[in-house]
UniProtKB/TrEMBL annotation:
This is N-acetylmuramic acid 6-phosphate etherase. Specifically catalyzes the cleavage of the D-lactyl ether substituent of MurNAc 6-phosphate, producing GlcNAc 6-phosphate and D-lactate. It catalyses: N-acetyl-D-muramate 6-phosphate + H2O = N-acetyl-D-glucosamine 6-phosphate + (R)-lactate. It is an enzyme of class 4 (lyase). Its EC number is 4.2.1.126. InterPro entries: Etherase_MurQ (IPR005488), Glucokinase_regulatory_CS (IPR005486), MURQ/GCKR (IPR040190), SIS_dom (IPR001347), SIS_dom_sf (IPR046348). NCBIfam families: N-acetylmuramic acid 6-phosphate etherase, PRK05441.1, PRK12570.1. The gene is murQ. PROSITE patterns: GCKR, SIS. Belongs to the GCKR-like family. MurNAc-6-P etherase subfamily. GO terms for molecular function: lyase activity. Homodimer.
Amino acid sequence: MIDLKKLTTETRNPRTMTLDHMTPIEIATLMNKEDRHIIEAVQEVLPEVSTLIEWCTYALKHQGRIIYIGAGTSGRLGLLDAVECPPTFGISPERVVGLIAGGESAFITAVEGAEDSTTLGEDDLKKIALTANDIVIGIAASGRTPYVIYALKYAKKMGCKTAIIACNKNSEMSKEADIAIEPVTGPEVLTGSTRLKAGTAQKMILNMISTGAMIGIGKVYQNLMVDVMQTNAKLVTRAENIVIDATQCSRSQAQSTLEKSKGSVKIAITMILLQCSFEEAQNLLEKSNGHIRNALEGNYSLKEEKHE
């Protein structure tokens, strides 16, 4: 029998014992008050998050992938972060991968028993041809999910750097991780419902990891998404607005330059700011590892240290 009582995420919250007697406004107020603990918990693990951002940036720069792996809510959060990266940052879907116990169908319908498997995690990593260049991030609020633990064991055997995001200190998963990110958000409003505070903390950390890594590989200039994909009318207009905001040009110039840049926001911005051709802008960005700021300042061929 699994002893869940030792897990903070499974204990009862003394402040919510009369939850079933509360009015809607009382429930909303109480949940809002409890959510304040999330910010504090995440703040305490920022040094570990920072290190993981560095490692993920390095992996992406050296043919590696960011691989999230989890079960249930945690697996869904990893998948959600992964699928948002291509449209937001213009990166290939193969570079940030989300794996969930039971397969992609488990995103919608729970697959019973999948999270307890000691083999499925390894199998899923083998299916995507895991290499030592990849970084594997296990996600589980409890920190004890077998699917994730055995996936991490395999990842370590393959020479990958590993990290975990759990919401209990000194979790079982942390033994298999190079970095353990464990924000303790405390007992849930609804006992054991880790889609609440624990899930929110995990989502916040995933936001930091993917956004920070994308900034690190040049997908952002100032605070603008300069590799945004233009897959609908709204995003076409957003691309124009980004060029305008970055260069203070007119909309007509933004539109004409985007046409010349073959739709690349990053190249269009560089063309306007440096008053150069498409080919020149493309060459400068290649020399500056895709960073607009480096292209503008002439910081080319920057050396990078290997993270041990």
